[in-house]
Amino acid sequence: MKTDATVWTMAGLRFLSAAIELSAAIVMLSFNDVKKALAVNTLLAVVGPTIFFVVMMIGLVAVANELSLFKLAWIGAGVVCILIGIYVVK
């Protein structure tokens, strides 16, 4: 069975995200300093949601013609709620 190109793209971005996270963990260990580790972690706070958003948009564009406008609106509202929870709610 052949894998869809969209799925390959989505999975590739997730692999990229995982590689960035793993590299950040190695950098934190090599710095061996809490302040520097926090700085690295701050950068990861931007990478994770960005990858999430891009992967979600790629998937939504791929299935947009199969979903009703109502369902797409609900999915979009869910993504907005997640982003608000990440960036706004403290």
UniProtKB/TrEMBL annotation:
TM ranges: 12-31, 43-63, 69-89
Q: Which UniProt keywords apply?
A: Membrane, Transmembrane, Transmembrane helix
Q: Which domain of life is it from?
A: Bacteria
Name this polypeptide is given: DUF2619 domain-containing protein
